[in-house]
Amino acid sequence: MTPSDRRPRRNPLRARLAAAVLLGLGAAGAWGAARLGTGLVEQHSAAAVRSALAQGGFDWAEVAADGLSLRLAGTAPEELSHFRAVTTAAGQVSAARIDDAIVVPAKPEAAPPAFRVEVLRNGQGSSVIGLAPRSLDRAAILQRLARAAGGTAPTDLVELVDQPSPPGFDAAVAFGLSAAELAPRAKVTVTPGRVEVTAVADGAADKARLEQTLREATPPGVTLVADISAPRPVIAPFVLTATRTEAGLRLDPCAADTPAARDRILAAARQAGAKADCTVALGAPSPQWADAAVAAIRALADLPAGRVTISDTTATLDAPASVPQARFDAAERALSAALPRIFSLTASLEQAPETAENAPVRFVATAGAQGGVQLRGAVSDDRMRTALESFAGARFGQVDSGLTMNADAPAGWTLRVIGALEAMADLQRGTATVTPDLIRIAGTTGSSTAAEATADRLSRRLGPGARYELALTYDPRLDPALNLPTGEQCVARLNDTMAEAEIGFEPNRSVIAGDPAETVSLLAATMKECGDFRIEIGGHTDSQGSEPFNAELSQGRAAAVLEAMRAAGIATDLIAAKGYGETRPVADNDSEAGREANRRIEFRLLSPYPVSESAKAAEVVTGVTEAMPDAEAKAPAAPPVTASAPMIDRLPGTPPDLAGAANAAETVAADQAAAQAGEALAGTGGPEPSDLPADPAVEDADAPATAVHVPPPPATPDERAAAEGISLRPDSITVRGARISTPVPPPLAGAPVTGPPTGGDRPAARPERPAP
Questions:
Q1: 100 forms bridges with which residues in the sheet?
Q2: Cis bond before residue 320 (omega within 30° of 0)
Q3: Residue 581's closest CA among 604, 544, 619, 554?
Q4: Which pLDDT tens digit goes with each residue over 558-589?
Q5: From start to end of 234-362, where are the E strands?
Q6: Quick count: other Cβ atoms within 10 Å of Cβ 370?
Q7: Which long-range CB contacts under 8 A does 345-350 form with residues at least 24 apart?
Q8: Contact partners, residue 147, CB within 8 Å, separation at least 6
Q9: Angle between helices 325-338 and 289-301 in degrees, nearest 10
Q10: Rounded Cα gap, residues 711 and 706, in angstroms
Q11: Could you give the CA distance from residue 616 to residue 614 in angstroms, rounded to a whole number?
């Protein structure tokens, strides 16, 4: 056997098994490698798609890898978002690998439109607006509204659509039209099965009638929502009157600005024993109306009889003569102290009628701030009445004379009356009361030295020995040296400011439009010198809209201006706001320009008298007139008085103002009155003409006329100035700080004209006074 014969022989089965094992191991390795690679691709693709979807805002999308495929899932809000999400994913992997499983919800069926119709009615016409189904009978609706508006065609703004009418809509429309016909000022809103009515009635009774009619007419299946208002009436002037008699106290009329104010007023009335009712209305001059009304009722309750009336900002307290003076004075003081500052008070106690037996000889002159004088009381005869009326007319202008004849007037009576009238020269307003024993001057003056000047005038006219009492109140606002504006000037300045820089308002509202700061600052500058006057802010509108609406709108606008002034720091406790609506037009409402002029805010002066806390109280000065030797020495000598010379009440030195009345006096016999004239010159001023005998020329034509030399009275400052050709009344006064200067006065008419002083003849300038 050869060597080759001795080799082992290979087993074919084993070779095939080994080959199969090796092949399996290779396949397994290839499969593992393939699977590992696929996983890496899946992770990378899924991550890329998730990132892209997140950046695109598709947070609702879900990504899942399935081999080389990517499954997109989730609920898209709409089809467009679905499409955009798939497109975004396809930008990262092949669209063939994307398995779209995104769900898009089905669209709901289209909801029917919200049908709604509104009908608006006012005094100018009507309109209808809204959305309704085409089945709505538009022509019938417009015809009914036109008939309700008196033939005026309504404004049609209704849009019709091709949709069926929803349940309850047709019935609601029919009822809404009926409601609009019942209410001439209303807004009626109609929706399916529901009608809302917002209306303005003419009053409480009309409101109740309209509400009841609407409730009874409401059809089944329709809900009614009614808001009916009855605006407060406008009362002008705003008045409350309380009267107390033996039967008790009653209020008629009685107005209140708010229900709370009405309750306060009625509570005070019940406490005083009265049963009454008050009307809540617009037009109150002040929010403090209730305070004033309650104070007035309480003051009247303290009197056994009387009446108190508050009309706007003026309160008046009257009582019969049966009320004791002390009790009336106490009630007046209490009411004056309790009234808010914006209200003024006038109190009057009726005087008991005087009989011929007990009537005292008395004269009263009352001068008002606007000029003129009222004369009441006694004079000796008709000649003296003529003389006094002529004198008063020359001094004060218009004269309201109620003088009566009294033969018991004492000697020198007319001279005392004339002296009292002269003593009123410095009064802005006041009274002069003359009795045989006393001359009393009371009133308000703009001169800080009025008491001394008045006493001086009385002494110069009456001579020594006449008793007087002065109760003068110095008001700095009346002092010409201070040059403060009057109430009329203050209101004119405020209205000029409103004309130059008007405060505007939003249409049909009381809200100020824009920034009123500039105008309010100008008003504040004026009010710095005018804060002590009672002033009203009046709101006015044109005639567009209803009267109640315009009244309320104007009241709100006036109150808005008042609030803006208060917010700017202006003292407003003396300022009232009042709405007048369309009642006081200044132009025609038929044009736009006229209506614009009527829409305004206007200031009005309630009282020309300032309510100044700085005004001094009346200072009472009593005294006796003194002789004026210096004046008497300088006065020109009077010519002798003869029986043929006219005399006025035997007045020595008749004032120039009586020159015209001198001719009315009859010629008297001075020789037979010498004794009486001498007695009169001792201090009474001479007898009345009625005390003197008749003209001797009538009794005895042959009797010689005997002259009686009557010394003249002391010359007054005006008389002395006239004699020297000097004017005591400067044309103007200039105030610069503490210095007051006047121009050189012109000479009086008829006086010699001289040139101005030159060189050393010019007087030295008055030295400056140090500032206080």
A1: 72
A2: no
A3: 554
A4: 999 999 999 999 988 888 888 888 989 999 98
A5: 239-245, 248-256, 279-280, 306-311, 314-319, 344-349
A6: 9
A7: 345/315, 345/316, 345/317, 346/314, 346/315, 346/316, 346/317, 347/316, 347/317, 347/318, 348/316, 348/317, 348/318, 348/319, 349/318, 349/319, 349/321, 349/323, 349/325, 350/318, 350/319, 350/320, 350/321
A8: none
A9: 160
A10: 16
A11: 6
Q: Cα separations (Å) of 177 from 201, 217, 226, 242, 568?
A: 17, 12, 14, 48, 49
First to last CA, the chain: 164
Residue pair 156/177 in contact by the 8 Å Cβ criterion: no
Contact 103, 74 (CB under 8 A): yes
Backbone phi and psi for residue 615, each to the nearest 5 degrees, phi listed first: -65, 135
Confidence (pLDDT) at 661: 36
Cα separation, 590 vs 597, whole angstroms: 12
What is the C-alpha to C-alpha distance for residues 414 and 391, in angstroms, rounded to an integer?
Answer: 11
Sheet holding 69-73, edge to edge: 62-66, 69-73, 98-100
Residue count of the chain, please give it: 772
Cis peptide before 237 (omega within 30 of 0): yes
Q: Strand locations in 292-336, DSSP E?
A: 306-311, 314-319
Q: Which amino acid is at 209?
A: R
What's the rounded Cα separation, in Å, for the pair 520 and 692? 70
Lookup result for tokens 């089905």: 106
Q: What interhelical angle do 138-148 and 169-182 show, nearest 10? A: 20
* 401 vs 168: CA distance, rounded Å: 81
What letter represents residue 312's amino acid? D
**Each residue's pLDDT tens digit, 592-631:** 889 999 999 999 998 887 776 544 556 788 889 887 665 4
pTM (two decimals): 0.46
Which residues lie across from 536 on neighbouring strands?
576, 604
Tokens 């006449």 correspond to what residue? 466
Q: How far apart are CA 426 and CA 443, in angstroms?
A: 9
Average pLDDT over residues 752-757: 45
Which of 168, 186, 268, 297 is CA-nearest to residue 222?
168
Give the residue, 633 or 272, on which the prediction is more confident.
Answer: 272
